[in-house]
Amino acid sequence: MTSWGRAYSLSIMASKRPTWIPVVTAMIRKGDHVLVGKRPEGHTLAGQWEFPGGKIEIGESPEEALARELQEELGIEAEVGEIQLACTHSYPEVGILLVFFEVRFWKGEPKPVHHTELKWILPEELAKIEIPEANRRLLPKIMELLS
Length: 147
Description:
The structure is a single chain. By secondary structure, the protein is of the alpha+beta class. The chain has a single domain (18-146), classed as Nucleoside Triphosphate Pyrophosphohydrolase, CATH 3.90.79.10. It has four helices and nine strands; from the N terminus they run αββββαβββββαα. The strands form two sheets. Strands 1, 2, 3, 4, 6, 7 and 9 form a seven-stranded mixed β-sheet that branches. It is globular and about 45 Å long.
């Protein structure tokens, strides 16, 4: 390859579009409380509290992805409700498209299959625990939805 060819290849690689990951998230409510799980060690954002959910796989609708993730992470069969909030957030190495759904009905008792711990908290407690930057930035909107 010529030096021009190498330079062209490098410029194409450098101008590559950023990676965006579509993520679905559940606001699972029981009375006045909402469910959060602590991310396990060895995973991105380990030790932080999050709303359960995960990545949308090829061929899945957002609702199908969330139902699958809740089965895998919590061992429950959830009835995924309406979209409550959608936004984007950029981390240094990747961007995420984050879609929040309401979940009010499910079968089974949530268990920490994926998370190291689960807890039901009042919405105002979200401001006092360590949560991902994407959620912290959205906290006013999340609080409004949960009130």
